[in-house]
Please model this.
Amino acid sequence: MATDYVQVLTTVGSEEEAERIGSALVDRRLAACVQVVGPIASRYRWEGKIEESREWQCLAKTEAARYPEVEEAIREFHSYDEPEIVAMPIVAGSKGYLDWISESLR
Model:
């Protein structure tokens, strides 16, 4: 079932940091694929002030059951005090692609 899969998103402050996180997740077989997108413009409130920054997004495809390990690995390599780490369920996907995700994690 597609809901057995998630896409985990995190944002980081540099392309190099995004590449380190992506490499760690794929090398450790925690994600089948990590796409790095950026730079993106982010505007957010942090510690009472509105901030603006350039960031890069990491989009990791994995099994929902692996989320705790993915979050732990992201935190290991992430430089932010409180990083954005969110998982969105994959509600539908081609059987071949979803099977590839699972095979890539073994």
